[in-house]
RNA sequence: GCGCCCGUAGCUCAGCUGGAUAGAGCGACUGGCUUCGAACCAGUAGGCCGGGGGUUCGAGUCCCUCCGGGCGCGCCA
């Protein structure tokens, strides 16, 4: 609603500016609107007079006066005031606004656009358990998906599986050479053990082994070769390991309400010759060339000038095909990116991989011809959720598209980057990780999968659930265990998702157990609590034998105006009505943290309202009906916003 | 050496395309549960927005420069 009025006002002023000062007036595009610094100034501020002042060589204040007089009446606006030296502050008609909210349609943005947006996230190497860094990726990606869907976009969620890379190979090497396991024995381990945890340790052991026995790297080489060829016991083992680990990753993410649509796998990119096709295209369009001298002699390279401004140095060129004829990771990624836009002229086959309890299906790529799968790929826009350390490689991928003259697709390729999750020194100590004196002085310490240092995702979730369970049990000692555990799980997930979302993307998170486990202050738990308190009021009403009024029948524009004359109530309603505006703006800025912030502010506003206005005991009938409407409205907005954040509202807390 | 990111209250962080008196949470200190549950609310203290130049009506925000910290820059992924 707020968003809608804001647009209407901006348009009215834009039209007036054109009429008064001509089409070539100072302002191009929409007229800017802002939030006044002080609530007492009104609801919407327009700084347009400042921008016009320079070009018209006139005092801002005079322009503002002229404009606000000329603009006439705008539906829903009560008045315009000139403030400071040229601000135009708009006051909304409170009765109009409140009454409009009452009849507002649910979810106006459910139009499914034909244009598809692909979001690729998670992308964990399928060779060991997920850790907290992966959680940031998946939660950020999933929340962005929810934000886009909330404003009506058609989104496809991809989770790329690198099942043929070095990391998987190393675990396979460990099983074959260190553990002497046959595929059948590994199969048994998958059934009977916490397999992702087992591999976590095994991978760390293997990395150590390479350090002490460099000759063992020959094993890796042979294993990679066998995996790529796709035949024999080694290849079977690799598939066994990676498929089993992918299942554990999907299970971990499902605990956090994260689901996927399709799992494109590297093995199919190889077997279906995606790269061969991309290679032809790149050669044809001269995007890469064969180097005949220097350090990259014998390789196909992309010149540095393609992805790095001003760099002509051939030493900075990026190798795409090695001198032994094999393709690098970036090369495969270019092929994959082309496929996402439907530019490769090839497609995967798909098989059903898993069905979630809500009946949603995940499909995985396969090289065996299949029919009956939904269509995947062919997007108009692609977001790759990948941490900022890989920005160089992402630049090369986009440069590849550009060099092929796919300019529009290059522009529609977004590296949705974020900074890493490190560990606070205090948390390292708690976990028994030894720190050098140098590390102790740092604000954070980087985790290392190779060394097996890091916090496993499931361990963190378990820890959060146990802590939440203690809290729930202390409040509801007599409730059945499964019920308390269900509630505790929802609280834990809310806390974790909010924790990962409250930081903006380019801030490094120094993970600290004490902070992540906090259930007070700016947390997901606080927001959940507010939603529950709103529900409680409505439940209390029923307990008293009263029913929820028909608000649209009982509340009029006049009664809205009377009630909203109270500044505290007006500000609260205003805040609650800005959910869609907040989500829209967060999509534009690509910052899920903005939605999290808004959710917290909304909850804060409601908590204050809760404290100040007893609802069910209100004696004035009109006021009581109004307060009940407000409560119900806040409940809906809190639930809606939490839904976008992927956070459930527990039945109680 | 080159590129990207960060530096705002004791700590952890917001601050949307430049806009009015720079905001939260935690921690500290005061108060508030016989009331729709206090996982809460009200209040106090705490800031040369890393330093210095510049751009303009106006800079935490843009430009330059210096200082401090992080991450990239492989025929690894």
Oligomer: single chain
Strand content: 5-15%
Instruction: State the total count of DSSP E strands.
Output: 15
Predict the CATH topology of the domain at 524-644. Isoleucyl-tRNA Synthetase, Domain 1
H/I helix tally:
27
CATH architecture of the domain at 524-644: Orthogonal Bundle
State the strand order across the main sheet: 5-4-12-13
Q: Please, what is the CATH homologous superfamily of the domain at 524-644? A: Isoleucyl-tRNA Synthetase, Domain 1
Low-confidence stretches: none
Computed Rg: 29 Å
Q: What is the 3D form?
A: globular
Mind explaining what this structure looks like?
The strands form 5 sheets. Strands 5-4-12-13 form a 4-stranded parallel sheet, with helices on both faces. A 3-stranded antiparallel sheet has the order 1-3-2. It is built from 27 helices and 15 strands. By secondary structure, it is of the alpha/beta class. Among the domains are: 2-92, Gyrase A, domain 2; 423-500, no CATH class; 524-644, Isoleucyl-tRNA Synthetase, Domain 1, CATH 1.10.730.10. α2 (48-56) crosses α3, α7 packs parallel to α10 and α26 packs antiparallel against α27 (621-644). The protein binds one RNA strand of 77 nucleotides through α2, β9, α14, α21 and α25.
């Amino acid at each position: 609603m707020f968003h809608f009025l804001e647009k209407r006002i901006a348009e009215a002023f834009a039209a007036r500016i054109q009429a008064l000062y001509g089409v070539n007036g100072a302002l191009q595009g929409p007229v800017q609107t802002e939030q006044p610094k002080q609530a007492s100034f009104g609801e919407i501020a327009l700084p347009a007079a400042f921008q016009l002042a320079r070009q018209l060589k006139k005092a801002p204040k005079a322009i503002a006066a002229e404009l606000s007089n000329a603009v006439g009446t705008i539906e829903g606006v009560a008045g315009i005031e000139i403030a400071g030296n040229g601000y135009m502050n708009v006051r909304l008609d409170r009765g109009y606004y409140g009454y409009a909210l009452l009849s507002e349609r649910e979810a106006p943005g459910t139009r499914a656009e034909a244009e598809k947006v692909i979001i690729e996230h998670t992308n964990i190497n399928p060779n060991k358990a997920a850790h907290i860094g992966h959680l940031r990726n998946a939660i950020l990606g999933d929340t962005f998906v929810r934000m886009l869907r909330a404003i009506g976009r058609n989104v496809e969620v991809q989770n790329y599986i690198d099942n043929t890379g070095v990391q998987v190979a190393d675990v396979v090497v460990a099983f074959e050479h260190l553990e002497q396991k046959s595929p059948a024995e590994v199969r048994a381990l998958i059934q009977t053990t916490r397999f992702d945890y087992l591999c976590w340790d095994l991978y760390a052991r293997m990395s150590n082994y390479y350090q002490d026995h460099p000759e063992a790297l020959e094993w890796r080489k042979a294993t990679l070769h066998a995996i790529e060829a796709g035949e024999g016991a080694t290849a079977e083992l690799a598939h066994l390991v990676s498929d089993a680990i992918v299942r554990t990753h999907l299970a971990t993410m499902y605990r956090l309400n994260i689901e996927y649509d399709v799992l494109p796998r590297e093995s199919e990119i190889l077997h279906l010759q995606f790269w061969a096709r991309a290679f032809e295209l790149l050669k044809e369009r001269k995007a890469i060339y064969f180097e005949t001298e220097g350090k990259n002699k014998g390789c196909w390279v992309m010149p540095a000038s393609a992805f790095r401004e001003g760099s002509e140095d051939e030493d900075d060129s990026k190798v795409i095909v090695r001198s032994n004829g094999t393709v690098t990771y970036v090369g495969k990624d270019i092929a994959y990116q082309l496929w996402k836009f439907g530019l490769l002229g090839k497609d995967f086959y798909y098989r059903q991989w898993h069905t979630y309890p809500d009946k949603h299906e995940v499909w995985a790529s396969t090289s065996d011809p299949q029919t009956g799968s939904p269509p995947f790929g062919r997007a108009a826009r692609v977001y790759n959720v990948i941490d900022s350390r890989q920005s160089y490689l992402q630049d090369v991928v986009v440069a590849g598209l550009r060099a092929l003259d796919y300019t529009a697709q290059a522009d529609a390729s977004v590296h949705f980057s974020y900074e890493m999750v490190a560990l606070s020194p205090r948390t390292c100590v708690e976990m028994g990780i030894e720190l050098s004196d140098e590390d102790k002085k740092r604000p954070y310490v980087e985790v290392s999968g190779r060394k097996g240092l890091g916090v496993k995702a499931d361990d963190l979730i378990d820890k959060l659930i146990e802590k939440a369970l203690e809290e729930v049990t202390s409040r509801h000692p007599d409730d059945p265990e499964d019920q308390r555990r269900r509630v505790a799980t929802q609280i834990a997930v809310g806390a974790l998702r909010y924790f990962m979302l409250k930081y903006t993307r380019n801030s490094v998170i120094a993970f600290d157990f004490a902070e992540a486990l906090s259930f007070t202050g700016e947390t997901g738990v606080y927001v959940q609590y507010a939603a529950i308190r709103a529900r409680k009021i409505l439940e209390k009403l029923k307990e008293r034998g009263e029913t929820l009024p028909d608000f649209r029948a009982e509340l009029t524009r006049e009664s809205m105006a009377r009630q909203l004359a109270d500044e505290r109530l007006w500000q609260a309603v205003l805040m609650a009505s800005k959910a869609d505006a907040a989500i829209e703006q967060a999509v534009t800025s690509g910052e899920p943290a903005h939605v999290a912030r808004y959710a917290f502010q909304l909850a804060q506003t409601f908590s204050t309202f809760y404290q100040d206005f007893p609802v069910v005991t209100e004696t004035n009938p009109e006021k009581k009906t109004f307060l009940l409407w407000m409560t119900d409205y806040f409940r809906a907005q809190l639930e809606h916003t939490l839904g976008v954040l992927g956070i459930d509202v527990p039945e109680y807390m």
